[in-house]
Amino acid sequence: MELLVRQVAHWQQPRWSATASRGNVSRADLVHRLVQEIANLAADAEGQPRRTVPRLGNDLVLPDQLRVVAADLLAVAPTGGALARAATEVAATRTAL
Description:
Number of domains: 1
Helix content: 55-70%
Distance between the termini: 14 Å
Low-confidence stretches: none
Number of strands: 0
Strand content: under 5%
């Protein structure tokens, strides 16, 4: 996950707005989808209901949102399956960016 954060943390708005290489969505939309998926994995691991991660008005905060949900996931001591799924999602997102 840290590799992805380092890859995108310095991006300015035009790079976030650009279309991802896979799908017909912006890079920001793709990363926000990943943030939501990681948050869902954390909620599932904790036995809590899933909550919608807000899409904030500034895409430059997406790396911070990703850091927060990743820390939340690790804090609940998820199963190996949840960690493997998170790693798969992160790798797919990095490839699509």
